[in-house]
Predict the 3D structure of the following.
Amino acid sequence: MIFADVKLAAGDNAERLKALGLPLEEVKGRKTAGGQHRLLQPCAAFDGSRCRVYAERPGCCRKFECVLLKSVNAGRTSAAEGLRVIYTARERAENVQELLQELGDTDEQINLAARFRRTTSRLEKIGLDERLASIYGELTLAVHDLNLLLSEAFYPGS
């Protein structure tokens, strides 16, 4: 629900991934290592706690290690603290999801960042009454809080 679309890597079998139920999108006008496809997010193979195609997951998923995992593996962060960070991230993401739903965006097949941009655009067009402005203000702060945590704890090179 968090990441943007993921480009397939060299060696990824787009047809096999489609057969496993993963929606792929063709990338127009640009050659990528995995052909011309990207894996749409949120990932259809994630069941809430694990990957249902783990043994056949794409190369990008095999190689990805978030900053938090690297920190736990290096002994800089305890496993318990790592789990607390994950729990906090999930809570923040759920809060963003709930606020988006309150503002009329219920499409959970699209990542949160895209949903936030789409909701912002829609609200700019229709205008905000006091109630919508209050919820949108909460949403903006919730997205900021989530992005801050993600950039500090999960994204490499942030």
